[in-house]
Amino acid sequence: MIVAISIGAVDVPVGDVWGIVLRHAGGARTGPADPALDQIVWNFRTPRVVLAALVGAGLAVSGAVLQTVVSNPLADPIVLGFSYGATLGAVLVITLGGGVALAGLGVPAAAFLGAVAAGALVFALGRRHGRMAPTRLVLAGVAVGYVFLSATSFVQLRATPTELRTVMFWMLGSVAGAQWDQLPTVAVVVLATTVLLSLFGRRLNVLLAGDESATALGVDVNRLRAVLLVLSALLTGTVIAVAGSIGFVGLMIPHLVRLTSGADHRRLLPLTALLGALYLVLVDLLSRTLDRPDELPLGILTALLGAPFFLWLLRRDKGLD
Amino acid sequence: MRLIVDRIHVTLDRNPVLRDVSLEVREGDVVGLVGPNGSGKSTLLRTVYRSLRPAGGVVRVGGDDVWGLSPRAAARRTAAVLQDPGGNTTGLTVAEIVALGRAPHHGLLGRDGAEDHRSVSDAIDRCGVRPLAGRDYASLSGGERQRVLLARALAQDPRLLVLDELTNHLDIRARFELLDLIRATGVTTLAVLHDLDLAARLCDHLVVLRDGTVAAAGPVLDVLAPDLLADVFGVHARTERHADGVVRITYAARPLARAGGTADDDALTAGAADR
Q: If you ran DSSP here, which 8-state letter would residue B27 be given?
């Protein structure tokens, strides 16, 4: 992370970065270092890298949990409609601007509400006679996603070119807007839900055995699904709200970890959080260095970089045959 | 632990599946549940492992109504091995699958302790799957999987075992090995079995279900009487206990001579009738 902080439009020596970060972490306002460097490192780069790590961890953990909850390796926050819900919320605020902003809603708040609304819809539509069958949940998620996507497209048709560019950038995701004051909320939600979901690790393992077997192993399958859906919608909503809809991380990182260190959730979830965090920090670093001084949106690079590696790993693994 | 099913009624999608079904498995007994397809055998098992709540009647394990127990408390008493359990176990090793059996013994904050390791290791040894422990479960053969799932059930340290068609898809040797394994556990068992010969070999008592009601119940030879086999299963057969204590059933498409006579030309031996 320190290396990621040191590299950017202006490169700062790693030693200076350590000095600045440690001084601030120790409570000092500014240091003897060049005030401009201090500004760059502490006010721009550091929150950005921290946010990238939190967002990466949140998306990856959410994907890992959803894949197990709906018993489908293709599941992630996008397939289950959460991301499209968030997108509609964000796009509404970006295009309608004034009107919605009057109601006191910023883009992050609207995106969060959109994701949670999508989660609630999937939850409600996926239930029948109090049971939540995995296949029904996935299909409900896909359908809800399409509805939100259509609504988003309709809103975009009426947007101005400037608004469209903002919308596009938001949809592809970015942590460029990171600020210190938004970090505590995100950090608390990501860390708390990740810890909580890891505590459910043993029960998530049991869920892998199939619903009837899980029931015979003492797990209340429907209640567990409900709790996990709520937690992952909350987690996804929070990170998408601040960083936009970033694809690939939630789908691939969990599989990467499964392929390399097994499917036991008590190990899988912490490792997924770690790898997701590292991955998004790396991707963000590349997004601001490949095309200096311009920046690429994260969503373009996450898949472009990760997919070839993932495909290589898939071909190497014999367990999938 | 004693199982008592007391006059239960079950309705699925408005169809009555079980009507006024009662049965009892005494402590330490192995009871077979037999009957034609669709007679309600698996549904009855679901009421025992607390997956399906009967509309009427009560299921008691160790004297307590299973729906009065928490899911985890019920799973500490009753373990089940089910047919085609589904799920997605890719990436879990055999040892990890067996360790799932410890789930009912832990809350959210529970960590694996010495007792868990002992139960898992013991179950792995008893079912002879030690050489498979590090393998991916998805890579196992049908017979190996059944033994692993039985090991998972034993790792639950259950007082009652519920088995649904455990021996399906297994070759003849694997079947007998599995039956010996079940008898050797000494755990009270209720087993759905398709194959009457295996049922006769494994069980102390049999319960015959037909159209959601109990058609007969009692000691193996009493239940597998020619009249009942003709009535419930639509086959002509003769059951006899041989000198070695093994019960054999001889089937035929048309009526057979009474026990003691030689088999008719068109009589099929039990093994052939399986196919």
A: T
**Cross-chain residue pair A216–B108, CB shorter than 8 Å:** no
User: Nearest residue on chain A to B80, judged by CA atoms?
Assistant: A216
C-alpha span between A26 and A10 (Å, rounded): 25
**What six digits make up the tokens of A117?**
């609304």
CA distance B92 to A131: 26
Is A227 in a helix, a strand, or coil? helix
CA distance A214 to A205: 9
Residues of A with CB under 8 A from a CB of B: 68, 71-73, 199-200, 202-203, 205-220, 258-259, 262-264, 319-320
The pLDDT value given to residue B263: 43
**Contact yes or no for A263 and B90 at CB 8 A:** yes
d(CA A41, CA A4): 10
Nearest CA in chain A to B49: A216
| Residues of chain A found within 8 Å of residue B97, distances taken between Cβ atoms | 209
**Helix, strand, coil % in chain B, rounded to nearest 5:** 35, 30, 35
> What structural domains does chain A harbor?
59-316 (1.10.3470.10)
Range list of H helices, B30-171: 41-48, 71-77, 94-99, 114-126, 142-155
State both tokens at A264.
């036991």
Kindly list the distances between the CA atom of residue B200 and the CA atoms of A40, A111, B192, B249, in Å, as whole numbers in the listed order: 81, 64, 12, 9
Q: Name residues of chain A where pLDDT drops below 70.
A: 8-9, 27-33, 97-105, 317-321
Task: Retrieve residue B121's tokens.
Answer: 């290791």
Classified as helix, coil or strand, A77 is coil
pLDDT at residue B272, rounded to an integer: 40
As for the ipTM of the complex, it is: 0.86
For Cα atoms B129, B132, B138, give the angle at the middle one, nearest 5 degrees: 110
CA distance A262 to B235: 50
- Give the best residue of A212, A219, A257, A318 to mutate against chain B (max B CB count within 10 A): A212
Q: What is the pLDDT of residue A105?
A: 64
How far apart are the C-alpha atoms of B128 and B146, rounded to whole Å? 11
Q: What is the pLDDT of residue A98?
A: 57
* Percentage of residues in chain B having pLDDT higher than 90: 52
| Token pair recorded at residue B102 | 């410890």
Residue B271 has pLDDT above 50, yes or no: no
**Gap from B185 CA to chain A (nearest CA, Å):** 19
Strand order in the sheet with B3-12: B15-25, B3-12, B56-61, B64-65
Please measure the distance between the N-terminal and C-terminal CA atoms of chain B and give it in whole angstroms. 35
d(CA A227, CA A152): 28
CA-nearest of B227, B234, B239 to B253 is B234
Task: Give domain limits for chain B.
Answer: 90-158
Q: What are phi and psi of B87, to 5 degrees?
A: 75, -175
- pLDDT category of residue B222 using cuts at 50, 70 and 90: confident
* pLDDT digit string, tens, across residues A240-293: 888 888 888 998 999 999 988 889 999 999 999 999 999 999 999 988 888 777
Give the chain B residue nearest A129 (alpha carbons). Answer: B13
